[in-house]
Amino acid sequence: MRGDDAYLLDMLVAARKAADFAAKLTYPRFARSDLHQNAILKVLEVIGEAASRVSDDFKTAHPEIPWQQIVGFRNRIVHVYNSNVSSRRGGNSRADCVCARSIIGQCTASTRISC
Fold it and tell me: How far is CA 71 from CA 32, 45, 92, 112, in A?
């Protein structure tokens, strides 16, 4: 069984990938690029799936992380089949990725995870 450290590392790696994929990407270019849309949505899905597997004890110890929203966003990505990507995405991908990476980075620092 994997532990919280492994799930947090998965989240951090995925957040870094999402930020890298979105770097220097304008919204119009993102909207036209199936490749970027699918790459970013996939790593956001990974973040949500890993977040859903983090223990309740860890989630309780880190209320600054919006666990329900992260998992809920993953569920929208996965289960909203018949809509366009921009309505599934919501928000600002680049800002969300940077914020997620920062928050997850703080948690991983407290548990001595690095990548």
Answer: 26, 9, 17, 24
Question: What's the pLDDT score for residue 18?
Answer: 85
8-state DSSP, 50:
H
In eight-state DSSP terms, residue 111 is T
- What one-letter code names the amino acid at 37? Q
Three-state secondary-structure class, residue 80: coil
Burial class of residue 25 (count of CB atoms within 10 Å of its CB; 0-12, 13-18, 19+): middle
Longest Cα–Cα distance of the chain, Å, equals 42
pLDDT digits (tens, 9 = 90+) for 42-92: 998 999 999 999 999 999 999 888 898 889 888 888 887 655 544 444 455
pTM of the model: 0.72
